[in-house]
Amino acid sequence: MSLSDPKNQIQLLRFDDDFDGEVRLEEPMSRHTFYRIGGPAFAWIQCDSIASLSQVISICVKGNFPWCVVGMGANLLVSDDGFEGVVIHLGRDFKKWDFNQCTFQFYVGSSVAFTRIVQQAFHLGVSGFEFGTGTPGTMGGILTMNAGRPDDSIGSRVVSLRTYSASDGIKTYRGEDIDWEYRHTSIPSDEVVLDCILQARAGDKQEIQEKMDKILAHRKQVQPLSAHCCGSVFKNPEGHSAGKLIESCGLKGKRIGGAQISPKHANFIVNDANASAKDVCALIHLAQQKVHKRYNIELHPEVRFLGFHE
Ligand SMILES: Cc1cc2nc3c(=O)[nH]c(=O)nc-3n(C[C@H](O)[C@H](O)[C@H](O)COP(=O)(O)OP(=O)(O)OC[C@H]3O[C@@H](n4cnc5c(N)ncnc54)[C@H](O)[C@@H]3O)c2cc1C
Fold first, then answer.
1. For the whole model, what pTM was predicted?
2. Which of 157, 205, 214, 277 can pair with 125 through a Cys bridge, CB separation 3.0 to 4.6 Å?
């Protein structure tokens, strides 16, 4: 067994009592995505501390072995063939959060569910996070995607955030130094988001509740919330609604294999009958082709892909 081979080093982590985390080999990614789709990752590794995160990334970078971070998998489509690399999930030390009553700021670890912060803000009677009602994801995923609604997103609440990379170690960014674009940020793709400070503001509990109720009621009305899906599949092209474009091409309810363009919202592709990633991709391509042919508009995916070869 060659110890210079990153695969062997990763396998050996399973027997290392000092390794602060958990290693699973050939872990089906269908267990880690909202879609319930995805073949096995070479390894799925939960890192419970910065020490174990840095250990795993160092093995991968030095061995030129693919790796990525996955939060809740709420915006992820993984190939049926899986991912021949390491999927890193952030555990224990990244699940902490706190609220400072003096500054009205939340400290939030990357693995905290964002909806937890939305709920806590409501309980504390502080405003600024109602827009996240019903948006699934870890804080790391929410920041990386600059998740939000058409009129608001997480970027404008970020005071600062910390990342880790093999080349620079821990880095701190001020929120204003990051470009917060539509479902995209300027955070380099080789940096793992560790935690952040978010700014809240004084609010009225009843008003906060009313806003949250309104958002949730709207979601329930127009989105297939209980389905296995990734939320919006496509970004809205400037001045257009991706859902309306797809619907006007007659694709609402269109099915390929176990996947369907939701009859409720045409920008949602759902897995309602043991769909494969191939089924979902076929619907993605079909929607892109039809919309392009009819309107000469490109639909760009919002969903992130893992394990697909160009
Ligand atoms: C029913 C439903 C409704 C949704 N509604 C909305 C909505 O209203 N608005 C919206 O914006 N989105 C929405 N989404 C999409 C999803 O909620 C967001 O994209 C969310 O940010 C995904 O977070 P996650 O932890 O699941 O990230 P994942 O899906 O696990 O990963 C998404 C991306 O983030 C990267 N990433 C994750 N964690 C880290 C980290 N710590 N460091 C670096 N990179 C990281 C991953 O590598 C990947 O590229 C919805 C999804 C569903 C299923």
1. 0.98
2. 205
